[in-house]
Amino acid sequence: MFFYNLKIFLLRLMGYEKPLRVALLKLFSLKYKSFRPHYETILLEASLEAKKLGYDEITILELGVAGGNGIISLEKYSKNIEKKLKIKINIFGFDTGKGLPDTNLKEDVPFIWKKGQFKIDKDKLEKKIKSKIYFGDIKETIKDFAKINPKNISAIFFDLDLYSSTKSFLENIEIWGSFTTPRVYCYFDDLFHHNYISNFNGELLAIKEFNNVNKNFKIGTHIDHVADFKFPLAKNLLYTFHNFNHKDYFKFIGTDNSNLMSINNKKITYNFFKNK
Ligand SMILES: C[S@@+](CC[C@H](N)C(=O)[O-])C[C@H]1O[C@@H](n2cnc3c(N)ncnc32)[C@H](O)[C@@H]1O
Q1: Ligand 1, atom nearest to 137 Cα
Q2: Check: CATH 3.40.50.150 for 36-243?
Q3: Most exposed residue of 39, 51, 55, 258, measured as fewest CB within 10 angstroms of its CB?
Q4: How far is the CA of 49 from the centre of ligand 1 (A)?
Q5: Which residue among 38, 92, 161 is best mutated to probe the pocket of ligand 1, counting the most ligand atoms within 8 A of its Cβ?
């Protein structure tokens, strides 16, 4: 058995496509639950884009809060970003409070998620965070949330696990769609769960159905590209929500580098906080 276990271990090690440093980053994120480099970089890029658009206040949502490690890390990262970019970041969470809802839909992949999983200790959580959590089914609580007129939703962390819950939120686009920035960074945590989640179930199906019925809103993703280095641990889980009717959709947010491209300019300067 020892040699068999060793063989499987070596096969996995050699078959892992990512460099060791990525594996280490992943390992740290598993060990330290509020170490989330992807949350930090998404928050940073969303804030940078908002500033380019001229917004000084943004709203960030975490859909599915559970123990609260996501919200805790978002609050931690937002402090430095608020200071650095002079922007106000409002964070809101959504959760039933009672764990995953019951389901018998095959699209919810019920053989990996079960009713009541990720139940919250509300008192404990509320002592640890400042952000408001909307408790209840998201298809109802999203209506209460809209009443506060949230400013510039610019990043959404989707972590509801289930197809039906993700769909419930997305199909309420008429409620939340008018509060977004022209584009919204969308991180989908559950696009991969070994080989069980694919394009006919889970979040991928909810995204596909959303795109099929909406003309003015789309959720798209980019191709894997060597120039994409900004989102450690989020690369294949990052989508962008486009709000084509937004008044600022066409506003230029790129870098006017005509000067840099000039034949007279020998040196290229790169600023992590400015260049796209
Ligand atoms: C995996 S947990 C979230 C983990 C958390 N984001 C983190 O990073 O630690 C999924 C959560 O989604 C919540 N959830 C699922 N469906 C929901 C719905 N329809 N309305 C509100 N919350 C829901 C569950 O209660 C559960 O706590």
Answers
A1: 20
A2: yes
A3: 258
A4: 27
A5: 161
Residue from 275, 210, 197 nearest 236 by CA: 197
Listed in sequence order, the residues at least 6 apart from 266 whose beta carbon sits closer than 8 Å to its beta carbon are: none
In whole angstroms, give the CA distance from residue 161 to residue 101. 10
Q: What is the pTM of this model?
A: 0.93
Q: Where are the domains of the chain?
A: 1-31, 36-243
Q: Identify the three-state secondary structure at position 189.
A: coil
Amino acid (one-letter) located at 275? N
Pocket around ligand 1: residues whose beta carbon is below 6 Å from it?
Answer: 62, 64-67, 69-70, 94-96, 99-101, 118, 137-138, 159-162, 165, 168
* Max CA distance (Å), the chain: 67
- How many residues are there in the chain? 276
Counting residues of the chain whose pLDDT is more than 90, the rounded percentage is 77
Residue 212, CA distances (Å) to 65, 202, 204, 205, 220 in order: 28, 16, 12, 11, 12
As given in the structure block, the two tokens for residue 13 are 């090690």
Give the alpha-carbon dihedral of 141, 99, 231, 26, to 10 degrees: 170
pLDDT, tens digit, for every residue of 109-167? 999 999 999 998 999 998 999 999 999 999 999 999 999 999 999 999 999 999 999 99
Q: What is the DSSP string of 48-105?
A: HHHHHHT-SEEEEEEE--TTSHHHHHHHHHHHHHHHHHT-EEEEEEEE-SS-SPP---
Question: Is residue 56 pLDDT above 90, yes or no?
Answer: yes
